[in-house]
């Protein structure tokens, strides 16, 4: 096989894989709709929310947590340090909704190099109910948040999760973050679910407390530096599955800088690299960069127009991806396609960064992410 044929064939194959991934994710996802409130017989639920610092949408995300349509649930807010700026905001929300059973717990249990997991330990141990949701503080919970989570639980479930879907971007780099979170990362997570490869996502996780407690409790999630990676391996080891909600929940982004987007993506790449190297390795082929490069090599060798080749490849990649965002009610604007292009320019560098050791920034803290969750160069203090 000559160079032209090989490059053209591999480019076409990668474009087909991209299209199939969109089709599979499309089949798994539903457009957002509100479920009816459950009956009074619905089981009580504990929601553990690790929090740190005040963000632009903190007041709204806090209020949403107190307005859920579920007959009996408790909120347990966990903060590592009592002088954290988020503490007054939590107390103010608790005062506005005194009818919702709520506790604010402070303190830091160092069970791992994962600051969020450390922050959750006290909440998990204090939870009164058999169903526990671990929910990041920046999740914008809809009124039917618990219905969506509980409704995704099946007979063979060991865990139900929701990946974040970026919304309300302020500025171009926030749109780039939407392009990473939504039609790339969320899409591939739902593609994996369609293929029977369910991966946990730590943004929202519904656990059966008796199930996890019988298998090491929350301490078992310290087996990996990322609690969702540990959760995936634990659930699969039990012969159970990770299931995803039909319509993932929003994470409002607000303003983002280029440095913040790079730092977050580099950290996540490194986490994926050390926890699931077999699945991380082919990520270099995701996006438009590699198919386009191969197509241009083939076009140059065959003396075909480079301009029209570029246009055809970009249309094949981005039009179906944009259609997915529109069809599922995710953020979409004319600026999203340029944001996708910038994302795909970044992807090879992000992938390479995942293979390289060294310091990673985690919310203002510096750490080295190793393959051992209990051997970080520096143990972090925040969530």
CATH class of the domain at 31-255: Alpha Beta
Strand tally, please? 11
Strand order of the largest sheet: 3-2-1-4-7-5-8
Question: What does the average pLDDT come to?
Answer: 92
Distinct helical segment count: 13
Pathway: Lipid metabolism; sphingolipid metabolism; Sphingolipid metabolism
Subcellular location: Membrane
Pfam family, one: Glyco_transf_21
Organism: Mesorhizobium hungaricum
Structural description of this entry:
With 383 residues, the protein is an alpha/beta fold. The chain has a domain at 31-255: Spore Coat Polysaccharide Biosynthesis Protein SpsA, Chain A (Alpha-Beta Complex), CATH 3.90.550. 47% of the residues lie in helices and 15% in strands. It has helices at residues 3-28, 58-65, 86-96, 115-126, 145-151, 172-194, 209-213, 227-237, 258-275, 277-280, 289-302, 306-327, 336-355, and strands at residues 45-51, 73-79, 102-106, 131-135, 157-162, 165-170, 204-208, 241-244, 250-255, 359-362, 365-368. Strand 2, helix 3 (86-96) and strand 3 form a beta-alpha-beta unit. The longest helix is centred in the N-terminal third of the chain and has 26 residues, at 3-28. Pfam families: Glyco_transf_21. Pathway: Lipid metabolism; sphingolipid metabolism; Sphingolipid metabolism.
């Amino acid at each position: 096989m000559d160079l032209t044929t090989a490059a053209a064939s591999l480019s076409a194959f990668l474009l087909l894989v991209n299209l199939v991934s969109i089709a599979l994710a499309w089949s798994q996802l539903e457009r957002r709709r509100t479920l009816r409130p459950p009956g009074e017989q619905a089981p009580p639920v504990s929601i553990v929310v690790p929090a740190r610092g005040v963000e632009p949408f903190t007041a709204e995300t806090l209020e949403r947590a107190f307005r859920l349509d579920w007959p009996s649930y408790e909120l347990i807010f966990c903060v590592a340090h009592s002088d954290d700026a988020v503490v007054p905001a939590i107390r103010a929300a608790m005062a506005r909704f005194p009818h919702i059973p709520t506790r604010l717990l402070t303190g830091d249990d160092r069970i791992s190099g994962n600051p969020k997991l450390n922050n959750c330990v006290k909440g998990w141990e204090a939870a009164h109910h058999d169903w526990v949701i671990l929910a990041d503080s920046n999740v914008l919970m809809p009124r039917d948040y618990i219905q969506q989570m509980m409704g995704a639980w099946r007979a063979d479930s060991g865990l139900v999760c929701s990946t974040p879907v970026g919304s309300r971007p302020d500025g171009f780099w926030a749109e780039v973050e939407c392009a990473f979170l939504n039609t790339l990362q969320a899409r591939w997570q739902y593609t994996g679910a369609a293929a029977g490869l369910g991966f946990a996502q730590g943004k929202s996780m519904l656990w059966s407390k008796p199930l996890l407690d019988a298998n090491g409790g929350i301490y078992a999630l310290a087996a990996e530096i990322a609690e969702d990676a540990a959760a995936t391996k634990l659930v699969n080891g039990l012969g159970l599955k990770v299931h995803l909600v039909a319509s993932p929940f929003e994470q409002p982004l607000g303003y983002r800088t280029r440095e913040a987007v790079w730092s977050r993506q580099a950290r996540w790449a490194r986490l994926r690299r050390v926890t699931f190297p077999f699945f991380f390795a082919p990520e270099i082929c995701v996006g438009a960069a590699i198919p386009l490069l191969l197509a241009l090599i083939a076009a140059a060798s065959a003396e075909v127009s480079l301009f029209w080749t570029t246009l055809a490849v970009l249309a094949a990649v981005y039009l179906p991806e944009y259609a997915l965002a529109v069809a599922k009610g995710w953020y979409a604007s004319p600026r999203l396609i340029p944001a996708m292009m910038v994302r795909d320019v970044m992807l090879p560098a992000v992938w390479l960064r995942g293979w390289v050791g060294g310091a990673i920034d985690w919310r203002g803290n510096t750490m080295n992410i190793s393959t051992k969750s209990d051997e970080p160069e520096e143990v972090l203090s925040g969530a």
